[in-house]
Specification:
The chain has about 260 residues and is α/β, with parallel strands linked by helices. The chain has twelve helices and ten strands. It binds ribulose-5-phosphate.
Length: about 260
């Protein structure tokens, strides 16, 4: 692997082989998402516990201090909205030149497998990989399901992750599901877990992240389950304990209880 690519990946994936990404990219299709109305304020207390931020260029420039931040994964796909025709109809919104100008550690793009826009989103990924490899910038593929959350099963997600890896993604972000080992085992590049809508209890979030890590995921990229929570710092500290300190669900809950004030 070339030095630049390896250096960027090592900014994201820590020495223990794990990673804790903090996504705040939701506004690119959801607008001012609840608790992310002012992204700068949302991330301020959470940043010390994240290994990298997943963000669009607009929020990066306007809400993230360039002198005091973490490695950046730049969301470069979009062009759709929750009130539009189809969330899957994405294009590439940001050039590689812009990604380099912003000194990012990786770029992230969604693929929508099984939709009318499957081919378009996969070719977007493949072209982005061509550009990224030219400049040593890793591409993280996001296996998106749009509004169809029920699609999140092992057969479908394993298919998506494998295709994204085959097209050259260096990291794949996907949802946790039952039998998650099928997803990880079929994917030749590291898998990071997304969260999805906020779950009912903290323990539920700790449970699926713990299970995913046991089954081979290298880390997590949870957004709403952290920053829409009543105690976001307690949540991120507890999840970080699972990712970086080998905590189990009970130990994560103890970290949460210590900090939920
Ligand atoms: C939105 C994304 C988010 O980064 C991803 O869904 C993680 O956030 P959450 O845990 O809130 O689902 O890719 O398109």
């Amino acid at each position: 692997m070339d030095w630049g690519m390896e250096n960027r990946l090592s900014q994201l994936i820590q020495e223990d082989g794990h990673c804790m990404f903090l996504p705040i990219d939701h506004g690119y299709f959801q607008g001012p998402t609840r608790k992310l109305e002012q992204p700068g304020k949302t991330i301020e207390p959470l940043l010390p516990y994240a290994d990298a931020l997943f963000v669009t260029r607009g929020v990066l420039r306007s809400c993230v201090d360039p002198q005091n931040t973490k490695p950046i994964i730049l969301r470069v796909s979009g062009g759709t909205s929750v009130v539009g025709h189809d969330l899957a109809d994405e294009g590439v919104t940001t050039s590689m030149e812009e990604a380099i100008r912003l000194n990012v550690s990786a770029v992230g793009i969604s693929v929508f497998i099984g939709t009318e826009y499957e081919k378009q989103s996969l070719l977007n990924l493949a072209k982005l990989v061509d550009e990224g490899e030219k400049y040593g910038i890793p591409v993280m593929a996001v296996t998106a399901v749009g509004k169809e959350l029920e699609k999140r099963d092992a057969r479908y997600l394993a298919l998506c992750c494998r295709i994204a890896a085959e097209l050259g993604a260096r990291v794949v972000k996907t949802y946790w599901c039952e039998n998650f080992e099928k997803v990880v085992n079929g994917c030749p590049v590291p898998v990071v877990m997304a969260g999805g809508p906020k779950v009912d209890t903290e323990r539920e979030a700790f449970g699926f992240i713990y299970d995913g890590i046991q089954k081979g995921a290298i880390g997590q990229n949870l957004g709403r389950n952290i920053w829409q929570h009543q105690y976001p710092v307690a949540m991120i500290k507890a999840l970080r304990a699972i990712i970086h300190e080998s905590a189990d669900v009970d130990q994560a809950e103890a970290v949460y209880n210590e900090n939920a004030k």
